[in-house]
């Protein structure tokens, strides 16, 4: 299954999720081989997720996508009846958004590399993995932009680079470059390259432009076969730092790393930027996804004033 996933250039995160769902499905069905099962077993598993486990609609959708992939591309079996499977009800939820003041309070509670990552999530509207997977060549100081390559949906896009972050990023990259040069001198300094680039350009994985903007602290073996180097910073490192900063700031909203992206979009719309522009900066395929942020542009609930406030 992993081979089929990689042939289609799915992200490593999607690969791991799909494999976990298939393993869970097989265990649920008493370790039977998927090729021996069909409609009843798949329906039973997905319905159990929706009705017994009461999973979120997005969780069940991911499980369904994993099983569809398994049967269609690995077992070569079409499942036209899957449309009849009981789906978890989709509960409408508005994104958590911080005010500008709240964003400042959280960022003031952060420092170091984690603080810089969080500032970029808000300043450029990046998803956490998009920020962590940035390469040095993706930060364009001349044009004041960030290039996001193979973002969600495997799409490239460009977004803004906050002017205030330029000197901070330049100092950070100077430190990263010095460490990279020490790694190279020690026989390491490699990073994994996307797709088939390592085959086409065998030495590119050591070049400065391909290095991570936010590399991990440790050198590891076999980031590429037989080559020592660094992965990017682990998402959990930033997530924990953000959670701790939110707690210290006294903000009671359930803010996460993704809240910075929600706040980026909402604040741009508050500043009267065109929704199509915001859509492009966020990398949304459909403008309807971006439209959810217009809720904060309304006064109060649905734009209605309480009668207590009416003179």
Would you mind describing this structure in some detail?
Strand 1 (139-140) and strand 2 form a beta hairpin. The chain has 311 residues and is mainly alpha-helical. The protein is built from 13 helices and five strands. 47% of the residues lie in helices and 6% in strands. The radius of gyration is 23 Å and the shape is globular. The mean pLDDT is 88. The longest helix is centred in the middle third of the chain and has 20 residues, at 166-185. The strands form two sheets. It has a three-stranded antiparallel beta sheet with strand order 1-2-3. A two-stranded antiparallel sheet has the order 4-5. It folds into two domains: 2-84, DNA polymerase, domain 1, CATH 1.10.150; 94-300, Intergrase catalytic core (hpI Integrase, Chain A).
Helix and strand sequence: HHHHHHHEEEHHEEHHHH
Which homologous superfamily in CATH is the superfamily of the largest domain?
A: Intergrase catalytic core
Which sequence of strands runs across the widest sheet?
A: 1-2-3
| Total domain units | 2
Cα-atom Rg, whole angstroms? 23 Å
Form type:
globular
Distance N to C terminus: 66 Å
Q: Which bin fits the share of residues in helices?
A: 40-55%
Q: Please mark out the parts with pLDDT under 50 across 5 or more consecutive residues, or reply none.
A: none
The chain-level structural class is mainly alpha
Number of strands: 5
Give the overall average pLDDT: 88
**Text of the CATH class of the largest domain:** Mainly Alpha
Strand coverage percent: 5-15%
Count of helices? 13
* CATH topology annotation of the largest domain: hpI Integrase, Chain A
Question: What is the CATH architecture annotation of the largest domain?
Answer: Orthogonal Bundle
């Amino acid at each position: 299954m992993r081979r089929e996933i990689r042939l289609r250039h799915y992200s490593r995160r999607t690969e791991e999720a799909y494999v976990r769902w298939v393993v869970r499905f097989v265990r649920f069905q008493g370790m039977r081989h998927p090729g021996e099962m069909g409609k009843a077993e798949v329906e039973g598993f997905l319905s159990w997720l929706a009705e017994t486990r009461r999973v979120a609609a997005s969780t069940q959708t991911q499980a369904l996508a994993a099983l569809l992939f398994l049967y269609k591309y690995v077992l070569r079996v079409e499942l036209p009846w899957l449309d009849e499977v009981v789906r978890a009800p989709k509960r409408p939820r508005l994104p958590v958004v911080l005010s500008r003041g709240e964003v400042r309070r959280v960022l003031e509670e952060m420092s170091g590399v984690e603080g810089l990552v969080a500032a970029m999530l808000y300043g450029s509207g990046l998803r956490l993995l998009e920020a962590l997977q940035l390469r040095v060549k993706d930060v364009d100081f001349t044009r004041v932009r960030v290039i996001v390559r193979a973002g969600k949906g495997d799409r490239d896009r460009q977004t803004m680079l906050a002017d205030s972050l330029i000197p901070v990023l330049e100092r950070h990259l100077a430190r990263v470059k010095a460490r990279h040069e020490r790694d190279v001198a020690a026989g390491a300094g490699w990073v994994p390259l996307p797709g088939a680039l390592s085959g086409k350009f065998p030495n590119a994985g050591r070049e400065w432009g391909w290095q991570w903007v936010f590399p991990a602290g440790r050198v590891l073996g076999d980031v590429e076969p037989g080559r020592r180097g660094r992965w990017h910073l682990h998402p959990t490192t930033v997530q924990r730092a953000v959670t701790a900063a939110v707690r210290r700031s006294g903000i009671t909203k359930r803010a996460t790393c993704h809240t910075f992206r929600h706040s980026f979009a909402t604040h741009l719309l508050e500043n009267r930027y065109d929704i199509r522009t915001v859509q492009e900066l966020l990398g949304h395929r459909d403008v309807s996804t971006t439209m959810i942020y217009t809720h904060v542009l309304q006064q109060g609930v649905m734009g209605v004033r309480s009668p207590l406030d009416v003179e």
